[in-house]
Amino acid sequence: MTTAADPRRPVTVTAELDAPLSRWLWLVKWLLAIPHCIVLAFLWIAFLGVSVVAFFAILFTERYPRALFDFNLGVLRWSWRVSYYAYGALGTDRYPPFSLGPEPDYPARLDIAYPQHLSRGLVLVKWWLLAIPQYLVTGIFTGALHGGWCPGGLVGLLALIAVVTLAFTEKYPRDLFDLVIGLNRWVLRVTAYAALMTDEYPPFRLDMGGRERPVTA
Q1: Residue 6 — pLDDT band, cuts 50, 70, 90?
Q2: How far is the C-alpha of 114 from the C-alpha of 117, rounded, in Å?
């Protein structure tokens, strides 16, 4: 089930840097995350199928069926928590829950405001034609030329630099954390747009830090 989200900001990404962090746990997080990766592989297949159904629903009714929206939001939330725990940020040692829900107590959170109306025209072009410039940018961030993300590219490199620094200084560099979250926030905005969950085009803007910037009227 979705939580309340500000419609003026369709995609809200927040993250809290846990402290203290283990100096060496990051070396095995790839192994610890395998059960999540197995489950997520099947969930992302379902995500794609749901997105196809949603495409036709929007095309004919201008609405994204709420149950389908909540499911895909759950998959994105789950993926973001695992990415944050593992090599998309390495910002917490708390093991991610196996959950499609919002999990407000977990340090990485994602909300997408449910759209009451979506454009029939945009649904035909936004996920491929209009999103191409965004894919080119986020491909550098993640190492994958699509709307999702994987533990590679610039994000993975910066997260690795951060935890190597942590291993020697016992501190995760705060400026580096803010940058890593900003890059992930950009990717998640593009993912939500490409998945037809919002008509608002993602800004070409790096909003760094664990908290979203205040919405101005």
Answers
A1: low
A2: 9
